[in-house]
C-alpha cells in the first residue's frame, strides 16, 4: 500500500515531483540566475557560491532533462556552451523571485526565531 496525499499516490503527486526538482539546494539559484540572462557554465559556477563543478553539472543536466533549461553548444575552439531558461522554465520565475524576496526580507526574523527557540528553557 503506497502512501497518499489527498488520495493521490505520493509517487504520482505532481507537487512532490516538482518540489523534488526545484527544492534541491541549487536549482532555485540556477533558475534565478538564468532568469536574468543567458550564462556560460563558468559564469554560473562563479555566480553560485559553494557549488562544485560536479554538482553544477548534475543540476544543469537535470534542469535540461526536465525542460526548464536549454543547453546550446557552439562549434568553436574551445567549445562554448550556454544555458538559458526555456519558456517552461520562465514560468517559474515569478514564484521563485517571490520566494527569493521573501527569504531576503525575513532571513533575520527566522534567525531570531531560531535563536529564541534554541535558547528557550527546556
Percent of sequence in beta strands: 5-15%
Taking strands numbered 1, 2, ... along the chain, how are they ordered across the largest sheet? 3-5-4
Mean pLDDT: 88
Shape: globular
Gap from first CA to last CA:
39 Å
Poorly predicted tracts of residues:
none
* Main sheet overview: 3 strands, antiparallel
Oligomer: single chain
Number of strands: 5
| Strand and helix order | EEHHEHHEEHH
Note the main attributes of this structure.
single chain, 122 residues, alpha+beta, three-stranded antiparallel β-sheet, two-stranded antiparallel sheet
What would a concise description of this structure say?
This protein has 122 residues and is of the alpha+beta class.
Describe what this molecule looks like in 3D.
With 122 residues, the protein is of the alpha+beta class. The chain contains six helices and five strands. The chain has helices at residues 14-22, 27-36, 41-47, 53-65, 87-90, 93-118, and strands spanning 4-5, 8-9, 39-40, 69-74, 80-85. The strands form two sheets. The chain has a three-stranded antiparallel sheet with strand order 3-5-4. The protein has a two-stranded antiparallel ribbon with strand order 1-2. It is globular.
Amino acid at each position: 500500500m503506497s502512501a497518499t496525499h489527498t488520495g493521490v499516490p505520493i509517487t504520482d503527486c505532481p507537487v512532490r515531483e516538482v518540489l523534488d526538482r526545484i527544492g534541491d539546494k541549487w536549482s532555485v539559484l540556477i533558475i534565478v540566475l538564468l532568469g536574468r540572462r543567458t550564462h556560460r557554465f563558468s559564469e554560473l559556477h562563479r555566480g553560485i557560491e559553494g557549488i562544485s563543478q560536479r554538482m553544477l553539472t548534475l543540476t544543469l543536466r537535470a534542469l535540461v532533462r526536465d525542460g526548464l533549461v536549454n543547453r546550446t553548444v557552439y562549434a568553436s575552439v574551445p567549445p562554448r556552451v550556454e544555458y538559458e531558461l526555456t519558456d517552461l522554465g520562465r514560468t517559474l520565475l515569478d514564484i521563485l523571485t517571490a520566494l527569493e524576496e521573501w527569504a531576503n526580507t525575513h532571513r533575520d526574523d527566522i534567525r531570531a526565531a531560531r535563536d529564541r527557540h534554541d535558547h528557550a528553557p527546556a
